[in-house]
Structures are given as C-alpha cells and as structure tokens.
Write a structure and sequence with these properties.
The protein is an alpha+beta fold. The chain is about 40% helix and about 20% strand. Strands 1, 2, 3, 5, 6 and 7 form a six-stranded antiparallel beta sheet that branches. Strands 4-8-9-10 form a four-stranded antiparallel beta sheet. The longest helix is centred in the N-terminal third of the chain and has 52 residues, at about 50-100. The chain starts with a helix and ends with a helix. About 25% of the residues are buried.
Length: about 240
C-alpha cells in the first residue's frame, strides 16, 4: 500500500521541477513569434534599390512616349483659343458698329513676340490705346494672344486683312458691312481688298497648322476655319 504522504511529496516535487522548463519553452515561443513578426514587418517595408530603379525606368519610358503628344495638344489648344479671340474681336467690332451707328474696327498687330488685338471706333488712333495685362473683351484696349502665336503672312490662306501702319484692320460701317473706308456705305464699291478677308494664325511649334477667322462677304458674314486649305477657300 502506497504511503499518501510520500505520494503527495513526489507530485509536488515533480510539479516544481517541470515549471521552469515550461516557462522557458513559453518564453522561447513568445520570442520566436516576436522575431518572426519583426522579420515579416521588415520584409513588407519599402522597396529595394533595384525595384526603385526599375520603377524610375518605366516612368521615364512612359513620359518620353506621352510628352510629345501632350505638348502638341496644349499648343493646339492655345492656337484654337487665339483663333476664338480674333473671331470674337471681329464680331465685337461689327456689333458695336451696328449699335452705335458709326464705323468700328478690329485691329491686329505684332508687338515684340506677342500678337495683340483691339476693338475701337474707326476714328480712334489704335497706337494711343493702352495695353491690358488681363484677359477681357472691353473696347479701346490692346489684348495679347497666347504665347508663341504669330500672324501668318505667307503661303496659302495667309492673312490678307487691310494693312495699316504695322497693323491689320477690319472696318465695319454703321450697318455692319465690311468696308475699306469708315465713311463708306454697304452699296459703295470696295477697291482696297477682295473677299474673303481673313486673319490667319500659326503656332511656332505646330509646323504648318493654321487657324483663321474669315469675313466671307461684304455684308459682314464671319466664320472660322481650322486648316490652311479651308482658310484659303472662297465662300
């Protein structure tokens, strides 16, 4: 028969001797898990140098492909915006002439590297007008078109508006007709120019691209055209 006292002492001793080993195993397991977690975190953080170089190479290749097309798009938009402004200038001069029952004119010039336009009464000397630094459409002020835009004066469909003193002008009489003298009526003969009358623009980085605004009849019909051939066509 076993002695209960001895059995109890043996169990207590066994439990005491196994406890440090369990604590050691538990601590080792925790440390191992922490170490693995750190390694996993380190593996997921950032890019390697080779990965960054590959990424930069891909970005450079895509940029070299997309940049020329994007630049051409921006320049074409600038040319189109400038065309819209000269078209608006012709319309404004005609509208003001009809409203005030006196001749008005749209005047265009090159000042430095910029093309400028102004709408004013035909009796006003355009050289006396101030230059605006902000875009608008108020009369009696010079406004500048987009950068790198110039007036096309050569080739098919070139500008043929009535030349002034370093300018190109379009005069509309009190009835809105295009005339070559501010005192003329719609029924008077025009001898200084032929129809159509146009202001043609080009961009220095768009090659042969041309856009124009055209007065197609002596009665003052105005339209736009988006290429050299269309600018040259008679209505």
């Amino acid at each position: 028969m076993k002695n209960p006292t001895l059995l109890k002492l043996w169990q207590t001793s066994l439990a005491a001797s196994s406890k440090p080993h369990l604590q050691q195993l538990s601590g080792l397991s925790s440390q191992s898990r922490i170490g693995l977690g750190k390694k996993h975190q380190q593996h997921d953080t950032g890019f390697t140098l080779i990965e960054l170089l590959i990424l930069l190479l891909i970005i450079g290749i895509l940029s070299s492909i997309a940049a020329p097309g994007w630049l051409a798009f921006i320049n074409n938009q600038r040319l189109r915006t400038s065309q819209s402004r000269v078209y608006g200038a012709l319309q404004l001069a005609q509208s003001n002439a009809k409203r005030d029952k006196v001749a008005w004119q749209a005047t265009f010039r090159t000042q430095g590297n910029l093309v400028q336009w102004a709408v004013h009464p035909a009796t006003t000397d355009p050289t006396s007008l101030p230059v605006s630094t902000s875009p608008s459409s108020a009369p009696n002020v010079w406004y500048s078109l987009e950068d790198k835009i110039s007036i096309s004066t050569t080739g098919t469909g070139a500008t043929n508006l009535l030349p002034g003193s370093g300018t190109y002008i379009a005069i509309f009489n009190r009835q809105g007709c295009l005339v070559d003298d501010k005192e003329k009526e719609c029924t008077d003969a025009v001898t200084a120019f032929t129809i159509p009358q146009r202001i043609t623009l080009e961009h220095s980085q768009l090659g042969t691209a041309r856009k124009c605004a055209v007065v197609t009849t002596l009665l003052g019909a105005i339209k736009t055209a988006d290429d050299e051939a269309s600018c040259a066509l008679n209505p």
